[in-house]
Amino acid sequence: MRLAVVALVLAGLAAPVHAARVRFFAVQPKVRVADGASYAAFHDTMAALMDAAFPGRDALVQAGVDDVASHLAPADPTAPAAALVVFPEDVGLVTVLIGTRGASARAQASAVGAIVSLLGPYGPQTAYYAAKFPNQPLVRNLLLALTDTIYRSFYETFRELAMTHGVWLSASANVAPARRVNDPALVALLRDPDEPARSYAYEATSARVTNATFLFGPDGEVLVPDGASGARRSPSETGGVVLPSNEKPYLTEIEQPPPGNAAGLGLAFGAVRDTEVLDTPVGRLGIVTSKPAWMPDVNDRLAARGATVILQPEAFSEWAYAATPWQPDIFKEGGFATLQKTLGFRLNVDASLTGNFFDVTFDGQSAILGRRRKGGATGAWIGQNPDTGFLAVAPWIEPDPGPALPLATRRAMLAADGARLLPASGVPCPDSLALGACENGYREAVIHADVELPDGATTGPVDPTRVTPPAFSPAVRVSGAETTPTAQHDPRVAAAHGRVWVVWHEARAGLENVFFAVSADGGKTFGAPVRASDNAAGAVAELHPAVAARGSRVVVAWQEFTAGRDDDRGRIKLARFTAGGKKRGRDVRVDDLDASGKWLPAVAFAGGSVVVAWIDERDLGPEGEPLEHVYAARGRAGGLRFDPAVRVDAGAPVAAAAHLDNKWCPAIAAADRAVYVAWADFREYNWDVRLATSTDGGRRFGPNVRVDDFADLERIDERPSVAIGRRGRVHVAWTDLRAREPDTNVFYARSDDRGAHFSPNRPLDDSRAAFVADRDTPTNQWHPSLAADADRLFVAWQDGRLGNDDVFFTTSRDAGATFAPSERVDDTGSGRSEQTRPSLALLRRGRHRTCVVAWEDDRNGNPDVYLARRLCD
Question: pTM value?
């Protein structure tokens, strides 16, 4: 073990200091039944992937595959001191086949057959756990019976490899928490009979068998969240129980227990709220195991917790077996796209599993991904046009034919060979290590890249480029000058009574606080930032503010935690101000329950009242999972007190979403006593935009109406924005991913009957106007912000069409029937800085309208709040 690295980790856990440079590895093993023959077979294959000097590597790993050890110090004198190695999702899957008890399973032709064949050999252990944890799904009970086998192979192997090479290492398996036991009778029952001399065994301590990722430190301990943004070492600081670092919260259907899938793996769901960030010398790590990489609630929580590096262990079930839909396009909309969308994320490490597990297939190309930039392309997955952001990518079984051919032709050629990889393809490989277009001829790989991690609030270099946009003014810095770089996030803007208000959160003195700044000259200049709450500076974590202004009244709402960064117990608070920024009374509690998390408030004036909507975790799923639902409360006496909260979303989820009936990112708009709340909704095992209407000022809400109209699978529609136009028309814009396309767009629909029905959807941005599929690379548009004035609509959004994130804008003069060509809002031209999360408001002065747009901007090397304006008559 490298003692210097161990010393670094021990010091880092006490007071994390991110290294200037870290080497990241993604390891891509191929599933082979032979690796599950014995503990030694599994260990030796994983060890050989780590080290090219491992004895007998030629019989364990494909020829030409790189390793980890030769790229670490002292073998590589240029290597940084800290390194992180990521193995894929389900890398521990093959361990269920180990030993004499797995012999029949290894001889099966299907994964289901293999699982069924284990029930008899593991009968005594299954009976033990059925008595200890009654009423568990059949396969979950079998996985409990396999606890000792999996921990003896998976846990001990990867713990040893982390210690041997002095690295941080993550790996995944389907297991429950467990402890090492020494009681002879219990050991005799649980221990593998192939190892009669072993004096210990591993016993499951919970029935929660999850898709679990373990982050091993160089000292062999697993780093696990403590629930309050800190970490503990497991098992030494967890009572001897080995706990995972992350439990996958969004399960695929085959992983789910009944009723989601009666024949599935029967895994338990991780709680979305427990998706934490682990602060280490190799970055502030967030873990998104496959499907969660696409989920907006998971990624927003990681962003709020300050993640900089995202680990994406993958067991992607398809890759290039069919030309339509093209699976690498679907894959690109996961971790790659989320990395670009979220300013604080700097890196994604995707380690993919490949190979056939009997009749179940895995394929992909591992990659280490950075942020896109303006300039030349650096890489792509097969069947895609080049893009920036690829720091390293594993090759597929063959090269892409290249852009000289039409895209459809390239994909058809690749898919023809991809189909030969499948079980029973009829094209045998010469041996299990073979690479190429034959059955199980998948690629193994080890890739790496060095990355400079941000220190504190820093996200990148200073960007001096300034180009005044066609119609908007040069941007002004709202959040004020700083002596020490501080990150400002999630700005929201409102305008009324001749004033422009901008709110945001930042950690200026301890925990995050909500700040605001006011402009009395239409957004040309702003006063000094002011804290919004009555809390002592830095004493209470306050996040995600919302602001509404009407006449001379302004209200600011935010979420806060009751203790430190423990987000399992939250509050929604509101402060009242004059238009000039003078506070009116004390902060007011909006919600009515301490014992649940609260997220993402939205606020509006409705008649003489204030209505606040938010995400609340008070409701529980079938196995006690905290669910995310939309609640709202109506204020009385101008917001001096609030009625009890009412649930806004309603309707039963489909079976696959029974444990995942989550909602996210609510938006609100009101006209007199009519209140409209829209949100992203996962009840159909897809993210849809839904809307509910209250006709009594927010006391009660009516049926939920679906706004988006695409019927096929894998919809990810989120971040709605709502505005009310002439004659009560309801306008909604949102981020839309449909038809398994490689990019998101801003879509739009309107309701002419006050939210009861919506028009057919259509894209609002014009990023595809001159797009040529054979030549161009798809780009993403996110975070729309919509405002209406009579039949005029105004929309700003985050746009990646120029290479990285900028802010764009359009308008409609005919109530959304048509939209003008997009125009640039920010003034950074071709600069490399990022502009994200815009918020738009209208300021009316006499007969004139001014559009004001605020956003996050790292032109100064860390996120600040900027604003630009233009006349919108």
Answer: 0.96
